Amino acid sequence: MGLLEICKNAKAAKYEVQKLMAEKKNKALIAVADRLIKEAEYIKSANDKDYENGVKNGMHKGMLDRLKLDDKRIEAMAEGLRVVASLEDPIGQEIEHFERPNGLFIKKVRVPLGVIGIIYESRPNVTADAFSLTFKSGNAAILKGGSDAINSNIAITKVIRDALCDEGICADAVQLIEDTDRSVTTQFMKMNDYVDVLIPRGSAGLIKAVVDNSTIPVIETGTGNCHIYVDKDADFEKAIPIIINAKTQRIGVCNAAESLVVHEAVKDEFLPLFAKAMKEHNVEIRSDAEAKSVLTDSKDATEEDFGKEFLDYIISVKTVKSVDEAIDHINRYNTGHSESIITENKEAAQKFLDMVDAACVYVNASTRFTDGFEFGFGAEIGISTQKLHARGPMGLKELTSYKYEILGEGQIRG
Amino acid sequence: MGLLEICKNAKAAKYEVQKLMAEKKNKALIAVADRLIKEAEYIKSANDKDYENGVKNGMHKGMLDRLKLDDKRIEAMAEGLRVVASLEDPIGQEIEHFERPNGLFIKKVRVPLGVIGIIYESRPNVTADAFSLTFKSGNAAILKGGSDAINSNIAITKVIRDALCDEGICADAVQLIEDTDRSVTTQFMKMNDYVDVLIPRGSAGLIKAVVDNSTIPVIETGTGNCHIYVDKDADFEKAIPIIINAKTQRIGVCNAAESLVVHEAVKDEFLPLFAKAMKEHNVEIRSDAEAKSVLTDSKDATEEDFGKEFLDYIISVKTVKSVDEAIDHINRYNTGHSESIITENKEAAQKFLDMVDAACVYVNASTRFTDGFEFGFGAEIGISTQKLHARGPMGLKELTSYKYEILGEGQIRG
Questions:
Q1: Distance (Å, rounded) from C-alpha A359 to C-alpha A363?
Q2: How confident is the model over A318-338, as pLDDT tens digits?
Q3: How many other C-beta atoms lie within 10 A of the C-beta of residue A187?
Q4: Is B376 exposed, middle or buried (CB count within 10 Å of its CB: 0-12, 13-18, 19+)?
Q5: Is B406 in contact with A238 (Cβ distance < 8 A)?
């Protein structure tokens, strides 16, 4: 099917999906979950083709692993759908209401965004995931997955659409762009008349390409150059486990820490403890000149290192003279994701909270908590690093807009 | 000053502006208002240059009128600043808070967007207006006005900056791009590292150019192809004054009505009343074939007419068989701005409210109420016609974002 036809179908479908009551959506989500399990063999055989192509094309081992769908992963996709079915439906909620002196009654209600485009890379489970969140929030979705997972995505989308049909729901609530030609993706990003929002999910390169080329409003997600600042009044017994957790619990994620900022007053005492912990976890340290006086074995940090999301067993170290300098350094190099201060000093903590420009600012906790599940949203479509619309973890509510409903009795403007 | 330097200054200034307490901002806004009055001669003489250039370049009379600054208009600018000073400061407000089972305390607080770029056309009063709203909401602003008003804008910006300096506030809270070369505007739209949001204000052409070229998130404002739907159960005594008001009270504004949609069951009775009212207000009617059987004197409406924001004494008429067809027609041709149904039928009204895809949906009231002042916001930077971030009238709150502040006691993720 051509791109224009897909877009037109989605625009028609959004009016159907926005009308669906929570109960009907939940029943459909569970039906889709059941169907994914039932069709596991079909999905796995499609996935096998992608996997074989991946092997043939010399795909990196980590990527191959992310591509692979087995029974356990299909069960996890189904479970994700069931969780979304259990979440509260945000659509139709009244956000506020007020009456004007002329008698106009104005109600602000939550409505779907409309048509959401999602552009993502090779993990095929995103297909089910993105469907569940956009559907539950009353939106129609157009998915553009990576060409590496095209057979898996086609199979998963077919299973979802078949299940929707059986539930008497418009299958175009979710459509996949099957054409893997890059020019189609570029055209997709210009479909302003049909698509309300684009959400890229994947590497920094993918996100930048979407931001640079889309004329449709984009929600930028993902890149996280996160810092842990160890203040002069830090409790080291909190600092060390937090750094280990933020740096090493999962190295490839956007809320992992990439840099330690340390107050010079504690560097002599703290950095040896830090170095020991990093060594135990096989993390390479790249230090500035001041830190190097203590961390004599470490590599030199370059200017570039401070701006880098390593996503690897590497951490940079920057020494500062004050919390103000720490804030300046972080605001200069961060990506607006997650930042943490370790301190027992309330004044320093408050200044850090107030002045650091990021979606999530922590006091004495790991940056790894920036996550829709950890925040209690039940699910997430990604972490927004922009300030427009939504910031930080994006759950169902963040996939909605609002409208004003105004009730009058013949009022005209004077 | 070069564009990059302006952007860097703005990024530095945003950290200063976000810290300012409401009282200090309000005092500064009043000082700016006083200074504008005091410097009226200076501003008028700069404006004279623009006006003379306009005359020389054959500028349209309506445009020349919008360009002109006299004492009354300068007083109105100052009054606008005083009104904004009196409004509640949204910054620092707690939106919500919640505690997680692991003891993390999460607070969602309102913060400025950061650096807001505003690209606008020839009305120089927008300069003071845009400054007041962005400043009160804790943002730094970079303004790019039309070249036709460049001397006026330079003078107004200088007066504002001088007043800020005297108040001990960083003058870079507001900067004007003085270079009127188009390529500078295009570069400005790619300054993602410095500018958080772009808001275009002006014609449909300007807005489209910004949407098409900007890589910075844009809030689309303005274009309004607004409809009045007269249902079969309409009270004509409400319908006629509402249509007159929506169409003719101010023809050049985005919340003016451009099209009448009428139920066929009432066309014979209603359209003659409508035609009489339009004739009295010198409004040209362009009808579809069904309406033409009654409005025999009217012009034929073309397909193009239904998609047009006339901004003129012209109205199109479309006949429909049901409220559903009215909704379909509106959703096909509207710009997501403001739509109104005239009916005494609650079911039809509810369906219209639920299904029409627009920022503001009215029952028995004029579309002219879509306005920040009419909504009680005290002021507005524009009317958003997109669904991301803000929809409808945008006041101070719509110029903010939020951040999560998370307080822990050493929590790490398991």
A1: 14
A2: 999 999 999 999 999 999 999
A3: 16
A4: middle
A5: no
Mean pLDDT value of segment A276-303: 96
Question: Which residues on B lie below 8 Å from A408 (Cβ)?
Answer: 362-366
User: Inter-chain contact B19–A387, Cβ cutoff 8 Å?
Assistant: no
Q: Is the Cβ of A408 closer than 8 Å to some Cβ of chain B?
A: yes
pLDDT above 80 for A58:
yes
Nearest CB to A411; choose among B211, B220, B366: B366
Residues in chain A with CB shorter than 8 Å from the CB of B387 are 113-114, 196-197, 217, 401
Task: Give the confidence band of A252 by pLDDT, cuts at 50, 70, 90.
Answer: confident
Q: Which residues of chain B does A391 touch, with a Cβ-Cβ cutoff of 8 Å?
A: 401-404
Residue range B3-221+389-407, CATH number: 3.40.605.10
Instruction: Tell me how many degrees the CA angle A294-A296-A301 measures, rounded to the nearest 5.
Output: 95
Nearest to A353 among B197, B405, B409 (CB): B405
Across the interface, of B15, B376, B413, the residue whose CB is closest to A100 is B376
Q: What percent of chain B has pLDDT over 90?
A: 93
Contact A15, B331 (CB under 8 A): yes
Q: Tell me the C-alpha distance between B50 and B40, whole Å.
A: 15
Structure tokens at B335: 């710009």
CA distance B51 to A172: 55
Residue B399 token pair:
């110029």
Question: In this structure, are residues A47 and A151 in contact, taking their beta carbons and an 8 Å threshold?
Answer: yes
Token look-up 């569940």 returns A132
CB B237 within 8 A of CB B346: no
B165 CB-contact burial (10 Å; exposed 0-12 / middle 13-18 / buried 19+): exposed
Q: What tens digit of pLDDT does each residue of B26-57 get?
A: 999 999 999 999 999 999 999 999 999 999 99
Residues B232, B265: Cα–Cα separation, whole Å = 6
Residues of A in contact with B334 (CB under 8 A): none
Overall average pLDDT of the B94-118 stretch: 97
Chain-chain contact of A219 with B410 (C-beta, under 8 angstroms): no
Q: Is the pTM of this model over 0.90?
A: yes
A331 at the B interface (CB within 8 A)? yes
- Of the candidates B354, B387, B408, the beta carbon closest to that of A362 is on B408
The model's pLDDT over B293-312, given as tens digits with 9 standing for 90+, comes to 999 999 999 999 999 999 99
ipTM of the complex: 0.94
B338-342 and B360-365 beta bridge pairing = parallel
**Chain A interface test: which of B134, B404, B409 (most A C-beta within 10 Å):** B404
| Residues 6+ away with beta carbon under 8 Å from A28 | A20, A135, A163, A164, A167, A169
pLDDT computed for residue B252 by the predictor: 87
CB A143 within 8 A of CB A174: yes
pLDDT average, residue stretch A274-287: 98
- Which sequence spans correspond to the domains of chain A? 3-221+389-407, 226-369
B413 closest CB neighbour out of A245, A363, A408? A245
First vs last Cα of chain B: how many Å apart?
A: 52
The domain made up of B226-369 has a fold known as Aldehyde Dehydrogenase; Chain A, domain 2 (3.40.309)
**E strand or H helix at A241, and its extent?**
helix A236-248
Q: Do A412 and B368 touch (CB under 8 A)?
A: yes
* Rounded CA separation A338/A222 (Å): 11
Q: Which of B134, B192, B195, B151 is nearest to B10 (CA)?
A: B195
- Cβ proximity of B301 and B288 under 8 Å: yes
For chain A, the distance separating the N- and C-terminal CA atoms, rounded to the nearest angstrom, is 52
